[in-house]
């Protein structure tokens, strides 16, 4: 016990892992690629445009070292406005960045699906109140 310096119990991270474990069927169920992936030559601007059109929650990594998870709310030829969320589903505000600064784009992965599930549960809880 001399080496133990901290024990976390029921903190935000543990609740996040429990949420994911309780919803594995939804997080990993029937993953399908969008139809446009096979129909078009993919570029970052096109992926951002499709995410905006379809209301898809995405994860974007930029060359300046920032990554954002959220929804593309506005898109121009040069810039993106994203409504961002933390991995725990808390609103993290709006961010504007240049399309040319996007280094990596994730349409859907385990983290984005967990976040989508959290947000849809939050919406249904507030709709039901």
Q: Could you characterize the architecture of this molecule?
A:
The protein has 129 residues and is an alpha+beta fold. It is 35% helix and 26% strand. It has 4 helices and 5 strands, in the order αααβββββα. A 5-stranded antiparallel sheet has the order 4-3-2-1-5. A hairpin with a 3-residue loop joins strand 2 and strand 3 (79-85). The radius of gyration is 17 Å and the shape is globular. The model has no long low-confidence stretch (mean pLDDT 89).
Per DSSP E runs of 2 or more residues, the count of β-strands stands at 5
Helical content class: 25-40%
The largest sheet, given as strand count, sense and whether it forms a barrel, is: 5 strands, antiparallel
Can you count the helices?
A: 4
- List unreliable stretches of 5+ residues: none
Helix-strand sequence: HHHEEEEEH
- Globally, the shape reads globular
Head-to-tail CA distance between termini: 46 Å
Q: What proportion strand?
A: 25-35%
**Which sequence of strands runs across the widest sheet?**
4-3-2-1-5
Structural category? alpha+beta
Q: What Rg do the Cα atoms give?
A: 17 Å
User: Averaging pLDDT over every residue, what do you get?
Assistant: 89
């Amino acid at each position: 016990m001399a080496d133990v310096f901290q024990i976390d119990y029921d903190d935000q991270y543990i609740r996040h892992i429990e949420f994911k474990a309780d919803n594995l069927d939804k997080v990993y169920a029937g993953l399908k690629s969008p139809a446009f992936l096979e129909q078009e030559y993919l570029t970052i601007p096109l992926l951002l445009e499709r995410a905006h059109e379809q209301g898809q929650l995405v994860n974007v990594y930029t060359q300046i070292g920032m990554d954002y998870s959220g929804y593309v709310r506005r898109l121009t030829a040069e810039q993106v406005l994203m409504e961002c969320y933390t991995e725990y589903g808390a609103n993290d505000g709006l961010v504007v960045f240049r399309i040319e600064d996007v280094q990596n784009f994730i349409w859907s992965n385990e983290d984005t699906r967990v976040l989508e599930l959290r947000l849809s549960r939050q919406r249904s809880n507030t709709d039901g109140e």
